[in-house]
């Protein structure tokens, strides 16, 4: 099914405060670690921190984790969607979707571990035999405690098939979550006699529509990111490396009580949407771009601020203002029921009308205008040409058009948006001006 249009038949039819469930058996999967962002971990030490970072206080009070009741409701919704899609069960490994439904993660290896959610009946886990005790330490019985094991000379795929058969087969179809590795999906196809189909209408059909509890966690992640950015941008100095600025931002995250990742770019390297690994030192007049965020109970923020170190030139001011207008035009186009592609079109028109582009051509806007977000920093669905998915209450997106001028500089302003009953709302207020990156 087309990634951009499945929602019409599925969903609409129906911090990292360090806790054991954030870290165990996951390789820190809930921590942002995109290739362009550096995850420095949780470093609480305050020894030689700049004063603006040293002054930060934790923002961890009042956070309400997702409840067992809400996760049970997610499983029930998935089962309803399975019936609508004529699928007997879905299978996922121990990644983000597993955390979404059953509150646990399991790191990937060559041995199959995962969760089967049937259209009818109780969920079950599939686990290597020698890992059963460890698995039971992590499994939350509120969502089901059946663990079926396989030994080293046995097929885990047959175990998966037997769970589905024991729950009752109607359609002879099993949905595979989009991040399940090929060898597992192929083994299920080969060993079970079930037709393997895409589970995205189920998993994204649930995950794309956020509850108030999820939005509250994302709000906290956004608030923390802004606080850290404010403190860290005040530490900029002549000759600073991008690694040093990234380290200061991550130290700010830690002082606030959260994990995060960050990319910092200077000068001409800001024209690369996800930055450069080239060593950089800050000079008077450089454009500075910082991008990424933190997690709160696994939920992500993704914010970009672009400023100038020193006095901006008229050229920098003019391009920054075009970008600001593009971001504002995108926000104004976010209307309940409108197709997601309309948002990209609105932002791109501003940039093309200013003489850049067209399309993805640079100088211009080289990427989509925004992406869905939640437990993954990038998830369903996107503000991109061709995406007819109607915007719906509960969706969350980044709003981040960019104006990239290779060899010169780039400007990206990025804030996150959620769709309330009365329309789009910002998680954070956009930058007012090139020399004022944060609203009062």
What's the number of helices?
12
Q: In whole angstroms, how far apart are the ends?
A: 45 Å
What number is the mean pLDDT?
Answer: 91
Q: How many strands appear in the DSSP assignment?
A: 18
Q: What is the CATH level 1 assignment of the largest domain?
A: Alpha Beta
What is the ordering of alpha helices and beta strands? HEHHEHEEHEHEHEHHHEEEEHHEEEEEEE
Whole-number total of structural domains? 2
Largest sheet: 6 strands, mixed
| Proportion of strand residues | 15-25%
Q: Which runs of at least 5 residues are low in confidence (pLDDT < 50)?
A: 1-45
Helix proportion of residues, in percent?
25-40%
The CATH topology name of the largest domain reads Creatine Amidinohydrolase
Give the structural class. alpha+beta
CATH 4th-level superfamily of the largest domain: Creatinase/methionine aminopeptidase superfamily
Spatial order of strands in the largest sheet: 5-4-3-2-6-7
Shape: globular
Question: Do you know the CATH architecture of the largest domain?
Answer: Alpha-Beta Complex
Q: What's the gyration radius in Å?
A: 23 Å
Description:
The protein is of the alpha+beta class. It has two domains: 6-57 and 209-426, Alpha-Beta Complex (Creatine Amidinohydrolase); 88-198, Creatinase/prolidase N-terminal domain (Creatine Amidinohydrolase, Chain A, domain 1, 3-Layer(aba) Sandwich). Helices cover 32% and strands 19% of the residues. It contains twelve helices and 18 strands. A six-stranded mixed sheet has the order 5-4-3-2-6-7, with helices on both faces. Strand 3 and strand 4 (124-128) form a beta hairpin. Mean pLDDT is 91; it is low at 1-45.
């Amino acid at each position: 099914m087309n990634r951009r249009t499945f929602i019409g038949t599925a969903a609409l039819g129906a911090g990292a405060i360090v806790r054991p469930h954030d870290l165990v058996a996951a390789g820190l999967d809930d921590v942002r670690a995109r290739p362009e962002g550096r995850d420095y971990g949780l470093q609480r030490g305050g020894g030689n921190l700049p004063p603006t970072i040293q002054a930060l206080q934790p923002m961890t009070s009042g956070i309400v984790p997702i409840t067992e009741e809400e996760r049970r409701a997610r499983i029930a919704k998935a089962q309803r969607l399975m019936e609508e899609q004529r699928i007997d069960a879905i299978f996922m490994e121990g990644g983000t979707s597993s955390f979404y439904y059953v509150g646990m993660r399991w790191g990937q290896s060559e041995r199959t571990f995962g969760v089967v959610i049937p259209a009818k009946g109780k969920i079950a886990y599939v686990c290597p035999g020698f890992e059963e005790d460890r698995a039971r330490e992590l499994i939350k019985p509120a969502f089901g405690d059946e663990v079926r094991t396989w030994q080293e000379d046995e097929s885990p795929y047959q175990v998966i098939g037997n769970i589905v058969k024991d729950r009752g087969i109607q359609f002879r179809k099993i949905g595979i979550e989009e991040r399940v590795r090929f060898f597992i999906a192929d083994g299920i196809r080969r060993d079970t006699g079930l037709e393997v189909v895409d589970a995205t209408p189920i998993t994204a059909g649930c995950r794309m529509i956020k509850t108030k509890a999820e939005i509250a966690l994302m709000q906290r992640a956004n608030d923390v990111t802004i606080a850290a950015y404010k403190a860290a941008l005040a530490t900029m100095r002549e000759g600073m490396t991008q690694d040093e600025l990234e380290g200061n931002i991550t130290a700010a995250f830690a002082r606030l009580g959260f994990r995060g990742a960050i990319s910092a770019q200077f000068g001409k390297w800001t024209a690369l949407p996800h930055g450069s690994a080239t060593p950089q030192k800050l000079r008077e007049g450089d454009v500075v771009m910082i991008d990424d965020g933190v997690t709160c109970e696994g939920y992500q923020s993704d914010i970009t601020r672009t400023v100038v170190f020193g006095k901006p030139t008229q050229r920098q001011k003019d391009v920054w203002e075009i970008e600001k207008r593009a971001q504002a035009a995108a926000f104004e186009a976010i209307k309940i029921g409108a197709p997601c592609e309309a948002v990209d079109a609105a932002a791109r028109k501003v940039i093309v009308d200013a003489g850049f582009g067209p399309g993805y051509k640079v100088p211009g806007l080289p990427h989509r205008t925004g992406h869905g977000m939640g437990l993954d920093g990038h998830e369903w669905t996107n503000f991109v040409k061709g995406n007819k998915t109607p915007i719906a209450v509960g969706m969350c997106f980044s709003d981040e058009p960019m104006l990239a001028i290779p060899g010169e500089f780039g400007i990206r302003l990025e804030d996150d948006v959620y769709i309330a009953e009365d329309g789009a709302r910002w998680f954070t207020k956009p930058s007012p001006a090139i020399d004022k990156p944060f609203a009062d």
